Amino acid sequence: MKLPKVSIVYLLLTLLFGISIGVVGNDLPYVIFKRDISIPDVINFFIYIFGILYINNKISNNRVEKDILIEMCNRLSDEVSESKKLIDEFVTTTSVKAIKKLASQIISKMTDIRNAIATLESSCKDSKKIDDNISSLISAIKDDNFNYFKTSTQNLAGKKPKITPEDYNMAKEHAYQQTIKASRLKLMINNQ
Amino acid sequence: MGVNSETMNEEIIEVNIAKDFTLTPGARYRTDGKFSGEEFYEDVLKARIDEVWSKDNSKLIVYLDGTYGYASSFLSEVSIRIVKDFIDKKKILEKINFVSEKDPLIVEAIVKFINETP
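Output (structure tokens, whole complex):
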């Protein structure tokens, strides 16, 4: 490797700068640490250190807990969005075979959504992050989910699976409400 | 074994939809196709409810797990038929325990269907 050429002037200037710092620094008073340390000072020192470590650990655990619950809210929103996509595909499909397949996929997806809500609710209870507001919001999500399940699957299991335009519009609204409420829940958990 | 006398005297009848009826529950009425809610109620459930209804210490447990899922029309029809025949909603919910470990909220849905039935 070839080293860059440095002018002798720069080397002399650097040397002079170093000497001047040394001269100025020599005139400054030295920092002297007291050698006598009292026991209460030592105790205070350790209390501060362990206090900071404890608080830091608690804040970090709390953050992790919140992140897990927020991730569960995201999962709920994702499941609802996927079910909505299946419903959209269902109402635009004409092939009988594809319609039957989509109908059973929608019914199965409803189970996934219910499980996402149940897991979220039990995790909120376990982590003690559930207050009255969060509890009533989860109840409202469950109500929307019940109506979503009712409207979107009531004609799906027969010989000719169908979703009427009226049921489709209601299902769309219930899906939207679940997603909105899941977002509000995320905010509430984050602000806890 | 820590089994109390009350449990020992209690008669429990079980219905497992996946084993005793079908893996693929259908729609509301028989006319809608196979394995409808109407068919399940008339051919499987009603006789079992009759068995436990008049006995003090007997219960019916309906296991919901193991199927490919339920359409709301199936559950709604079963709930409507139970309330229509047995009327007393409080006693219905005491006598019949719906159980699902894999989908616990479906049990809440059935209770809602029963309570919604006029």
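Helices of chain B lie at 5-9, 17-21, 37-53, 72-86, 89-95, 104-116.
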